[in-house]
Write a structure and sequence with these properties.
six-stranded parallel beta sheet, alpha/beta, 2 domains, two-stranded parallel ribbon, globular
């Protein structure tokens, strides 16, 4: 913390990039202030809200003594996020680039009907679509553990993270995945929130998420910086019809193949 704050205190800076929690701590302890700051930029606002940082952001806003301009960026705009925006913005103007909640057009979206009992076996075939790294999302912790164990038995270099693992285990898994010593990461949405993995080639949704916003965020992990990525989603009779209708609309907007 001292290494981060010394340049600010000694010389002053034009911009500070920080997580909400750390910034709030530094402001509370008066390590620096926002008396001369006129601009606040909040990136990935919907994810920030999902992670529970709304109180931290509101606290940070309270430290601005004079008029400020706030820029709030978000890939999706669910009702909860809209309410949050009204609390932290003053006379806001909405600018849409494309449609909020739309999928990245650089991602090839493939939706496949797979019976529930066949998904874990079909997963191996699915991994052959692209080179690593591959990110697999599951809804349940138990599925994460089962898939991880199955992949290891089949000789796949895989690691896993979920909320039931301790922090050291998660940090080790993330480090191995980032340095390419492991090819596949199996994760829940909650465990993967806030983590950035460059150059993901393939995202596999072992389960179709209930909220379409989560689907957009998941597949947005690939196809970055103008590169093409692949997203494969398993569906079957257990998926809610409302989720399937949302998915169909998303596929049509992105000019992707809609399965029969």
């Amino acid at each position: 913390k001292r290494e981060q704050i010394e340049p600010v205190q000694r010389h002053g800076v034009h911009a500070v990039v920080a997580t909400p929690g750390r910034l709030k701590d530094l402001l509370n302890t008066k390590k620096f202030n926002l008396d001369l700051c006129r601009y606040l930029c909040l990136d990935e606002g919907d994810r920030m809200l999902d992670l529970g940082f709304d109180e931290e952001v509101q606290a940070i806003v309270s430290f601005f003594k004079k008029q400020r301009q706030t820029l709030l960026f978000s890939a999706t705009m669910p009702k909860k996020f809209q309410d949050f925006a009204q609390e932290v913005l003053v006379r806001p103007i909405l600018v849409n680039v494309g449609r909020a909640g739309a999928a990245n057009l650089d991602v090839i979206q493939e939706v496949e009907y797979v019976k529930q009992e066949a998904k874990i076996v079909y997963l191996l075939e699915c991994l052959q679509k692209t080179s690593p790294p591959v990110l697999i999302f599951c809804e349940r912790k138990q599925d994460v553990d089962d898939i991880h164990e199955y992949l290891l038995l089949k000789g796949v270099e895989a690691v896993s993270i979920h909320g039931g693992k301790d922090q050291d285990e998660r940090n080790e898994a993330i480090a191995h995945f980032k340095d390419s010593s492991k090819d596949v990461l199996v994760a829940t949405d909650i465990a993967a929130k806030g983590l950035d993995f460059p150059d993901i080639q393939h995202v596999i949704n072992f389960d179709m998420p209930a909220e379409i916003e989560n689907y957009v965020h998941r597949i947005g992990r690939t196809g970055r910086c103008g590169k093409t990525g692949v997203a494969t989603t398993f569906i079957n009779k257990q998926v809610e019809e409302s989720s399937l209708l949302d998915l169909k609309q998303l596929l049509l907007e992105a000019k992707q193949l809609v399965p029969p």
